[in-house]
Amino acid sequence: MSRGCGASEGALPAHVAIIMDGNGRWARARGLPRHAGHSAGVRPVRQCVEQAARRGVKVLTLFAFSSENWRRPREEVSRLMSLFLEALDRELDELHANGVVLRFIGERERLAPALQQRLAAAEMRTRANTGLVLVVAAAYGGQWDMVQTARTIAERVARGELSPAAVDQVCFEHHRTLAGLPGVDLLIRTGGEQRISNFLLWDLAYAELYFTPRLWPAFSTEDFDAALAEFAARRRRFGRTDEQLQADALPVATEASR
Question: How many domains, the chain?
Fold first, then answer.
């Protein structure tokens, strides 16, 4: 993983997203069924939520179940949905007590009605909290997300609520699934694969990418901190040159030296 020169020491990502990959391989290496890996993956979820809140991360988005995962064997999908529901019921009280705001993104109409109701109830219960925003992407795909945003804008234009000339980047961001939240600063993917797998295509535009061979059930608090340290060691240019970044930082350094 390459690092940018002259990174800003101690920088913290406001928004961290994680592709939690490797459950099946973790289970297979131990001679266990795939669903055992999914069950073991609950522990690092809890640890990452706790550590993100502890470190001051504002938003944590977890890729729990993709649009493409519907293609998996029916039994595995069923077990995943049951595990999702059980984890939500088990963790909700503690998440709420710690001020976590829960948001769920994805094609909810494809989920079982009981699960849809639980998600809506969890969002309603935690919406006034002021702590970490925990976004869970379930039945989610980045291409689907962008199509939904475009469709919503097109419908508003058709109703005369919005001028075509007003459709720009800011307008698009106001209609996206994660409207009101900052773009992703740091994407972590476990399991050794190095791709984004149709996840948060708009929001990952300027994200720093961090890939680790660690399989998700083995991912630890130390691994999370290592990703944050890697982020802090990079220089984020956003299209600018190193000279421009140095010039922007100069007045701050001068003031601090007085």
Answer: 1
Using one digit for the tens of pLDDT, what is the confidence trace for 184-216? 999 999 999 999 999 999 999 999 999 999 999
| Cα–Cα separations (whole angstroms), residue 60 to 14, 49, 55, 95 | 9, 7, 12, 13
Q: In what order do the strands lie in the sheet with 15-19?
A: 101-105, 133-140, 59-66, 15-19, 186-189, 208-211
Q: How many CB atoms lie within 10 A of CB 98?
A: 13
Q: Is residue 221 part of a domain?
A: yes
Residue (of 190, 195, 175, 180) closest to 226 by Cα position: 190
DSSP H or E run through 140? strand 133-140
pTM (2 d.p.): 0.86
What would the mean pLDDT of 83-92 be, rounded to a whole number? 89
What contacts 75, CB < 8 A, 6 or more positions away? none
Residue 164 within any structural domain of the chain: no
Element (H, E) at 74: helix 74-97
Paired tokens of 114: 């009981």
Tell me the residue range of the domain where 113 lies.
Answer: 15-141+182-253
Residues annotated as catalytic (active site), given as ranges: 21, 69
Number of H helices and E strands in the chain, helices first, is 9, 6
CATH of the domain at 56: 3.40.1180.10
Q: Is 135 helix (H, G, I), strand (E, B) or coil?
A: strand
